[in-house]
Write a structure and sequence with these properties.
9 strands; alpha/beta; 16% strand; nine-stranded mixed β-sheet
């Protein structure tokens, strides 16, 4: 980002310029989306303020305009005695507080590509995590994940009565790499202390084979569907054949799947974004499979719970003596798919703070074995 794109008055949501926090309707999906996307963008600007040692910080406008203050920047060490900002805890300070407004928003930025020598280490860390996501579909067990979980844990412990009633007061959000981090924290909160936190994930990475199939001039929709169905049937066969070897692993994964099912994060995706295409395919094709093959739903549910990737990591963990289960399943989600934006800009954050009239936005809610168009 250059200086102009960091400036809220130039780059921010024009429909909210000068409106003030009192004009925000937190019960309105468009208002929530625009504001949360702006708060996430504020993390990028916070890091730019730090890296460029700006005398006048540009980040405050991205959160103060909506009634938030910066409770705590989330930092990670790099190089020699240096720290970078990868997230922040925002506190809603506007009085009176809207009954549907969060009290805190824990937000995370995505990858920042920089060429300057002083900040190359930050880019290397970001790209290293991108590679981890590509290979494992998760940032779990990374140092940044550990730091994010600790900060979220401490925030919940600081509440007067941490429990289910405080869930609606703490929201999670992130973009791209930051969305993977928010996903990891949300899963951890749900599994470890049963806190169902509202979560907003913009362009959550999950690379799909779909663009490759299109490049090979296959019949795009049919090729994707056939590949997905074949994979599902192969998984069902694997479950039956290898039950003696993986039985305990699948039992634990089934329990994790059941624990995570009530949590329904919001996934904001663009159909032209190849980086998040995998989640569009996963939920849409999963539903088509269940509707077409209702007779084997009990078997197909096993295929949803396990993955070949998880089985590989399970075997590696067993051989190394570290029997850890990866929390990289996502049983439920609300998908909000945007059709606008060019191919090159589809993975960007900016279009998510546009008003609904400028977006071709469709929504579906997938709750484990149910799917509903919104």
């Amino acid at each position: 980002m250059d200086g102009s794109t960091d400036r809220f008055e130039i780059y921010g949501p024009t429909q909210f310029m000068g409106a003030g926090a009192a004009m925000i309707d937190w019960g309105n999906e468009e208002h929530r989306r625009v504001i949360i996307a702006s708060l996430v963008n504020g993390i990028y600007v916070l890091e730019n303020d730090r890296a460029k040692s700006r005398a006048v910080a540009l980040a405050p406008a991205w959160y103060q305009s909506f009634g938030f203050g910066l409770k705590k920047p989330l930092t990670e060490g790099y190089g020699f005695n240096n720290t970078s900002i990868f997230g922040a805890i925002y506190e809603y300070v506007h009085v009176p507080r809207h009954p549907s407004a969060p009290r805190y928003v824990v937000a995370f930025r995505g990858t920042m590509l920089r060429l300057s020598f002083d900040n190359m280490e930050v880019t290397k860390k970001d790209l290293g995590l991108d590679g981890k996501i590509l290979f494992t579909k998760s940032v779990e067990f990374s140092s940044r994940s550990r730091l994010a979980r600790q900060d979220a844990d401490q925030l919940m412990k600081d509440q007067a009565s941490p429990g289910p009633e405080t869930c609606v007061e703490v929201w999670l959000a992130g973009h791209s790499l930051g969305a993977s981090l928010a996903l990891d924290v949300g899963r951890y909160m749900m599994v470890s202390i049963t806190l169902n936190l509202p979560t907003f994930l913009f362009n959550l990475p999950n690379v799909s084979f779909a663009p490759l199939l299109k490049l090979l001039q296959a019949k795009h929709g049919k090729a994707k569907r056939d590949l997905y169905y074949t994979t599902y049937f192969f998984k069902v066969g694997t479950v039956l054949l290898l039950a003696p070897l993986f039985g305990s692993h699948w039992k634990r994964m089934r329990k994790l799947y059941e624990q995570l099912s009530p949590w329904v994060p919001n996934l904001y995706v663009n159909e032209k974004d190849v980086i998040c295409q995998g989640y569009i395919d996963y939920f849409m094709l999963r539903q088509q499979f269940e509707e077409r093959f209702r007779g084997i739903r009990s078997w197909s549910s096993e295929a949803k719970i396990v993955s070949f990737r998880n089985m590989l990591f399970y075997m590696i963990a067993k051989l190394s003596g570290t029997d850890k289960e990866r929390l990289n399943v996502l049983p439920s989600a609300t998908i909000l798919k945007n059709k606008t934006q060019s191919f090159l800009g589809a993975h960007g954050l900016k279009h998510w703070w546009k008003p609904n009239v400028e977006l071709e936005l469709n929504s579906w809610s997938f709750r484990n074995q149910e799917q509903t168009a919104l």
